Amino acid sequence: TMDDETHPRTLYVGNLSRDVTEILILQLFTQIGPCKSCKMITEHTSNDPYCFVEFFEHRDAAAALAAMNGRKILGKEVKVNWATTPSSQKKDTSNHFHVFVGDLNPEITTEDVRIAFAPFGKISNAHRIGQELEG
């Protein structure tokens, strides 16, 4: 449904300790609101485990995101974020801005532009439009 994409209910919880279980996550997160499910992903042996917690209500998921991000679970600070699905990624433009920078000196590279804009947030890509537009 459209509502799902504007009001997501699933959280990504990462940087988990290897001792964290789905039961523990559910115990912590259900204190904030009723959870529908918790799916632990551990097959990436080199990386820390992570999980997806699905709530029944968007507002509970949002409250859990605010409450749990950066909290320590079994001694490790967990990262909590909205779980993005490929379909909603295309539509989520809430924090995405296209900035056009004109009149660049020819010596300036894409990397220079990235470095200049880095303090303002994550840059998904920088394109240098060349001289082909002039004339």
Automatic annotation (TrEMBL):
<dbReference type="InterPro" id="IPR012677">
    <property type="entry name" value="Nucleotide-bd_a/b_plait_sf"/>
</dbReference>
<dbReference type="InterPro" id="IPR035979">
    <property type="entry name" value="RBD_domain_sf"/>
</dbReference>
<dbReference type="GO" id="GO:0003723">
    <property type="term" value="F:RNA binding"/>
</dbReference>
<keyword id="KW-0694">RNA-binding</keyword>
<protein>
    <recommendedName>
        <fullName>RRM domain-containing protein</fullName>
    </recommendedName>
</protein>
<dbReference type="InterPro" id="IPR000504">
    <property type="entry name" value="RRM_dom"/>
</dbReference>
<dbReference type="Pfam" id="PF00076">
    <property type="entry name" value="RRM_1"/>
</dbReference>
<feature type="domain" description="RRM">
    <location>
        <begin position="9"/>
        <end position="85"/>
    </location>
</feature>
<dbReference type="InterPro" id="IPR034492">
    <property type="entry name" value="TIAR_RRM1"/>
</dbReference>
